[in-house]
Write a structure and sequence with these properties.
heterodimer, A: 338 residues, mainly alpha, MetI-like fold, 2 domains, 14 helices, globular, B: Rossmann fold, Rossmann fold, eight-stranded mixed beta sheet, six-stranded mixed beta sheet, 32% helix, P-loop_NTPase (chain B)
Chain lengths: 338, 587
């Protein structure tokens, strides 16, 4: 065995046999990532499709109500194409998606892309505001807590972040509504009513509480990570060296510590962004905010499959994107280190 | 009045236990003071106090550090910050962790300087030139990880001297470097001090290094300066028993000798007894030594020692360093070697780092593999043990060829060859007790039950001269030397025929190194074969029977230890020998 191996090595020449080419080229890697994304979305939609079939009742029954005769239900099912085989229904939907047509809402008869379009702007606005606030706030709180470790500020932060992380988004949201929307102060509307055709930023008041709910959850989680990563960096030898060089605290914190502390925090930040997009569904429902989260919940109760599929597809794609971003930032960093 | 005066410097932990006691010394511009001592002697703590700095958990409680008449310890925060870097500079032990990985070299150099950008830039290029580094823009734009260890240390030196400080503190700056790089850095330090009329404090555990670079030396033990004087005089006529013991522990590349370690263990912070702090380990201690702490006695002007017998000891001859070591083991022609290596070649991704290495190791033989960092010696030992899988050639253990990867070797082959890593701080599982650690291979290879394993662990710990009660301790409670003994005991538990030692003493103090070398010598006498990878030729001379010298992956010299080290033929071996430092009593 060994003799064979060494023989083979010799004949190939030591230089070539002992070295390995880097096989992955940049276009190859991108192609691989896109293929993975498509495969993942395919699996997600397949799962959702068959999961909705397992739900009791269908759209025809929901539309016609309890009193409908079986004949009418059957007629509507035929009209909507629900009496065809599962595979054929699925294929019909999938081929539509592949040609850029998300189909028509079974409940309202409107094109799904149109329904989705309005709601997407609202949800994107909500998530964007939340993420834009989460990142700098987490950084600020994390750095302050690390710099003043074990101070009153740090201990208060650790305690309150533990409580906030333990509570679900809808509990935090409900508390906020009770505090600022209804019982105590009447500063902000407890329900975010945004008429269709209106852009969400025309109603900044309506955005405050949903954004705050998302921000509290994100900041309390992310700033803990940033705090720990800063504490590690502040105990490092290069920060000690910077002190011994006679540098000021601001320079040490911002020039020496920040870039190193951010390295582990950046992938975590994109994961938090992904969670925030996922968290939108709950928060939108809580505040009656007209976004894709509300759309998803309505379509599930209507058994409106094309809409369910489209919303899930969007959320999964966004989630995948941010996870991918986290991976790329992480491997990018470790690759650099090597 | 001296330019730098340190008076009664005392540093204590938060709970009040002192870690540096009443340190007093003077230093003139251009002079280098060597501070020598084992780990935990307080030498780093004392030298950091020159910058008015104490590490987390410690506090400077008393004393003065006067530099040109200004007391560094009395400065306010703002003045102290200006003082650091500009008046007193610091060179760290490990520049790989002390240079900021995220910042370019140019940025890290520029931030210690004040003034307009053009002057700063000119000064940076000047100091880089002075430490023998390129000073072009491409170099300034590099990040620390793009430099070699020697280059990183030069950058750290350049950073220290750039603002023209009055005093530079160098904290073991060459400990991680190989001899060649060390020699260059030491010469550089001496030249920088002389050229800039800069005083330096050079901290090291190695008297050979101190002897090379320092004008004066302060020997520290248990937080106290126990002897101080001109380097030549302290080395030639040591007055404190601890200094004598340290000198006896330093190996020589010129002659094979038995190394003498210091019995016992350095005192911990909590250990307090009324007498001399060294008395429990001292060969010369009398009853008097255990009752009253001796004060510093001046023997001749400038040379003093903290010992009751300081006046009589220098007259005694130094412990005979040339006590006969084991005889050199020669291979008899008919023997089947334990380990037979032919045409070993190995490489990584796109680079071959080892070319056609061949050697034999017979029973009881220690083969030393010598070379600088990057010469391929670690790749070689990792290929032998099967951790590096991409190699060609033949390796036979007891006549049977080995598969490249450890995973594809049979259990008996894996058991027969054992490996000891350089860093005992990383090679022991921090969550397993010493006993569990040593017992693991016993259970794995011999399926010993708990009771039998415990008995065997006790035997093994005794073999490596560790007290049996350490079996229940965790690695964190052990000193570096004790951890390395545990690693050796764990390897011995497998009953190996060949032991591969990868720089096993280079992370240890010289006095601890002596003890480990003597332990390994005992194992060789028991018939073990050993591949001893090192860059330290002095250890090679003390221990090895034969040597191969690696340079850039090629064997440039191969022969008996005495032949190779006494009459080196290859220029590379000659250069390595020339860079190896000696504690010369004649010096």
């Amino acid at each position: 065995m060994v003799a064979e191996l060494t023989g083979a090595t010799r004949s190939a020449g030591p230089r070539r046999s002992l070295t390995r080419r880097r096989s992955a080229t940049v276009p190859g890697r991108i192609g691989w990532i896109v293929a993975q994304a498509i495969a993942m979305l395919f699996v997600v939609t397949t799962l959702v499709f068959f999961a909705t079939q397992a739900m009791p009742g269908d759209v025809a029954k929901v539309m016609l109500g309890m009193s409908a005769t079986p004949e009418r239900v059957e007629a509507l099912r035929h009209q909507l194409g629900l009496d065809r085989s599962l595979l054929s229904q699925y294929w019909h939907w999938l081929s539509g998606v592949l040609s850029g047509d998300l189909g028509t809402s079974l409940a309202s008869g409107r094109p799904v892309s149109q329904l989705l379009g309005e709601r997407l702007v609202n949800s994107a606005t909500l998530s964007l505001f939340a993420v834009v606030l989460i990142l700098p706030l987490s950084l600020l709180i994390g750095i302050l807590a690390a710099q003043f470790k074990d101070s009153l500020f740090d201990r208060t932060f650790l305690w309150s972040s533990m409580v906030a992380n333990a509570l679900a988004d809808f509990v935090v949201g409900t508390l906020l509504v009770a505090l600022f929307g209804t019982t105590v102060f009447h500063w902000f509307p407890p329900v975010s009513l945004i008429p269709a055709e209106h852009m969400p930023w025309w109603h900044p008041q309506a955005l405050v509480l949903p954004v705050a709910t998302l921000v509290i959850g994100g900041v309390m989680y992310l700033s803990r990570l940033i705090r720990v990563s800063f504490i590690d960096v502040l105990n490092s030898e290069y920060v000690e060296m910077a002190r011994l060089k006679g540098l000021g605290s601001a320079r040490i914190l911002l020039t020496h510590a920040l870039p190193n502390a951010l390295a582990p925090a950046v992938p975590a930040a994109s994961l938090v962004a992904a969670f925030t997009v996922g968290g939108v569904v709950v928060v939108e429902y809580l505040f009656g905010y007209p976004g894709i989260g509300g759309l998803l919940i309505d379509s599930i109760s209507n058994r409106d499959l094309p809409v369910i599929q489209a919303v899930v597809l969007v959320i999964a794609a966004v989630y995948y994107f941010f996870n991918l971003l986290a991976d790329l930032l992480h491997t990018g960093k470790s690759g650099e280190r090597r | 009045m001296s330019a730098i005066e340190v008076r009664g410097l005392t540093i204590a932990l938060r709970d009040g236990s002192p870690i540096v006691k009443d340190a007093t010394f003077d230093l003139e511009p251009g002079q280098v003071l060597g501070v020598v001592g084992e780990s935990g002697s307080g030498k780093s703590t004392m030298s950091l106090a020159m910058l008015g700095y104490a590490r987390h958990g410690a506090r400077i409680t008393a004393g003065q550090v006067l530099i040109d008449g200004t007391d560094v310890l009395a400065l306010g925060p703002r003045a102290l910050r200006r003082h650091r870097g500009n008046v007193v500079a610091y060179v760290p032990q490990d520049p790989a962790t002390a240079l900021n990985p995220a910042l370019r070299i140019g940025v890290q150099l520029a931030e210690v300087l004040e003034g307009d950008a053009k002057e700063v830039d000119a000064r940076i290029r000047e100091v880089l030139g002075a430490v023998g580094l390129p000073s072009d823009d491409a170099f300034l734009h590099r990040r620390p990880r793009e430099l070699s260890g020697g280059q990183q240390q030069r950058v750290a030196l350049a950073m220290a001297v750039a603002p023209r400080p009055r005093l530079t503190v160098l904290d073991e700056p060459t400990t991680g470097l190989d001899v060649t790089t060390q020699a260059r850095v030491l010469a550089l330090v001496a030249r920088l001090c002389a050229d800039n009329q800069m005083a330096a404090i050079y901290v090291s555990h190695d008297l050979a290094v101190i002897g090379e670079v320092a004008d004066r030396v302060a020997v520290m033990y248990g937080g106290m300066i126990v002897e101080a004087g001109p380097t030549k005089q302290v080395v030639a006529r040591p007055a404190h028993p601890y200094t004598r013991a340290l000198l006896a522990a330093v190996p020589s590349a010129r002659e094979r000798m038995r190394l003498t370690s210091i019995p016992g263990r350095a005192p911990g912070v909590q250990d307090t007894h009324p007498g001399c702090v060294f008395a429990p380990r001292c060969a010369f201690a009398t009853d008097e030594c255990t009752t009253g702490a001796p004060s510093l006695i001046e023997l001749v002007p400038g040379h003093s020692a903290r010992c009751l017998r300081a006046e009589e000891l220098p007259e005694r001859p130094r412990q005979s360093a040339t006590a006969p070591a084991s005889a050199v083991q020669e291979a008899a022609p008919g023997d089947t070697p334990l380990l037979r290596v032919r045409d070993l070649a190995a490489g990584y991704r796109d680079r071959q780092v080892l070319f056609d290495v061949s050697f034999d190791v017979v029973e009881g033989e220690c083969l030393a593999v010598v070379g600088e960092s990057g010469s391929g010696k670690t790749t070689m030992s990792r290929s032998l043990i099967g951790l590096q899988e991409r190699w060609g050639g033949t390796v036979e253990l007891g006549g049977t060829p080995l598969a490249p990867a450890a995973a594809r070797r049979d259990p008996d082959q894996r058991r027969s060859m054992q490996y000891i890593f350089q860093n005992p701080y990383g090679s022991l599982n921090p969550r397993a007790t010493v006993g569990d650690c040593v017992a693991e291979p016993l259970r794995h290879f011999f399926a010993l039950g708990a009771k039998a394993a415990r008995a065997r662990v006790a035997e093994l710990l005794e073999r490596v001269e560790l007290p049996g009660h350490l079996a229940s301790r965790y690695p964190a409670e052990l000193s570096g030397g004790q951890r390395q003994r545990v690693a050796i005991a764990r390897a011995l538990g497998c009953a190996p025929t060949v032991l591969i030692c990868d720089e096993v003493t280079s992370a240890l103090d010289v006095s601890v190194q002596a003890a480990i070398v003597e332990l390994l010598r005992g194992l060789l006498n028991d018939g073990l074969g050993m591949v001893f990878v090192t860059h330290n030729l002095a250890v090679v001379r003390s221990l090895a029977d034969s040597v191969i010298v690696l340079s850039e992956g090629h064997v440039v010299e191969h022969g008996g230890t005495d032949t190779v080290l006494t009459e080196p033929r290859h220029a590379y071996t000659k250069a390595l020998l020339a860079d190896t430092l000696e504690v010369s009593a004649a010096g």
